[in-house]
Design brief:
356 residues, alpha+beta, two-stranded parallel ribbon, QueG_DUF1730, iron-sulfur, Epoxyqueuosine reductase
Length: 356
């Protein structure tokens, strides 16, 4: 708990300082929210009850802690929400990669260094800035690392609204940014929640390759390519393989088509720059990586999360969707006897597609 009692005026000044420090630490923006997420909790329970989370059992495992910050971190009465832009200048145009079936598409957020540790370190520094002014206080930093309704909290902190594709949208910066939070016991003044500005637009719903956005503000994760290529550990349903195209880690279509992303800002963090030309590398080259090469080249990257087996599975599907060439067929044949039954299954599917 905080050991220093401030007046409302002092807390308002502190809130202003916190936002300034956040920007100085490399965050694009910061806001402050209370912990009331009653409506979002009801929405989450309906979503879970319908099974839309698929195999992501952790979404339900923590009970109400996700929507009740004080149950996750006792004493929490405010949440400092921050965001950080993630697409660096010079990244290969996403549409060009998607329209090149010989290249593998990796979601733009995953091209460089994994953001989790980087942002958590910055949040710790933000907490140290606060401590330097007021002394000890209660806090805990989160970056997609615990049951936190980060988009709802960011919305309540005035940093954007949750779009029909369920991604947070900022009027001045689109949606290409990461979120992080500091849960705290400081009674800071809260910001005005953002209002929605999607209007009648439904481009994100219409463009989804697998029709995973089953209605405005409602995503069936079991059909989402991000889920299929990252979270799912088993076989990708056959009817969803062709719509995946050349997407081998995540999917950005719903964001790429969003009109608000004409305001997207370039990342200022150099560590987010693409590594190993993954903003448009050739599928055959990626499929040839050994497990050691995969682990070495994805060290410190979010791509590591899919695992080597998942990596080969995803690329096998993309190669099955690639134009038929002898080079593609030989690449697939090189993995036809792979030790993993999952890899063998998806390679066999891809070879069958080319044989047909």
């Amino acid at each position: 708990m905080s050991t220093l009692q401030l007046s409302p005026h002092d807390y308002a000044a502190l809130a202003s300082d916190i936002k300034r420090w956040a920007r100085e630490l490399g965050f694009a923006d910061a806001g402050i929210a209370n912990t009331n997420l009653t409506e979002d909790e009801l929405h989450l329970k309906r979503w879970l009850g319908e099974g839309n989370h698929g195999e992501m059992d952790y979404m339900a495992r923590h009970g109400d802690k996700r929507s009740r910050p004080a149950e996750l971190e006792p004493g929490t009465i405010r949440v400092i929400s921050v965001r950080m832009d993630y697409i660096p200048p010079g990244t290969r145009n996403a549409w060009n990669v998607l329209h090149d079936p010989e290249s593998g598409y990796v979601s733009r957020y995953a091209l460089g260094r994994d953001y989790h540790k980087l942002m958590r370190n910055r949040l710790q520094k933000l907490a140290e800035c606060i401590h330097g002014v007021i002394g000890d206080f209660g806090y805990r930093a989160f970056v997609d690392s615990a049951p936190v309704l980060e988009k709802a909290l960011a919305r309540n902190a005035g940093m954007g609204w949750i779009g029909k594709h369920t991604v947070l949208i900022n009027r001045q910066a689109g949606s290409y940014f990461f979120l992080g939070e500091l849960y705290t016991d400081l009674p800071l003044p809260v910001d005005t929640p953002a209002t929605a500005h999607c209007g009648s637009c439904r481009r994100c719903i219409d463009i989804c390759p697998t029709q995973a956005i089953i209605g405005p503000y409602k995503l069936d994760a079991r059909r989402c390519i991000s889920y299929l290529t990252i979270e799912l550990r088993g076989s990708i349903p056959e009817e969803l393989r062709e719509p995946m195209g050349n997407r081998i880690f995540g999917c950005d279509d719903c964001q790429l088509i969003c009109p608000w992303n004409k305001f997207a800002q370039d990342a200022t963090e150099p560590d987010f720059a693409p590594r190993h030309a993954l903003d448009g590398a050739k599928l055959i080259e990626l499929f040839a990586w050994s497990e050691q090469e995969f682990l070495q080249r994805t060290e410190g990257m979010a791509i590591r999360r899919t695992g080597y087996e998942g990596w080969l599975r995803n690329i096998a599907v993309a190669l099955g969707n690639a134009p038929h060439t002898e080079e593609v067929r030989q690449a697939l044949l090189s993995r036809a006897e792979h030790p993993s039954a999952i890899v063998r299954e998806h390679v066999a599917w891809a070879l069958q597609r080319h044989a047909a």
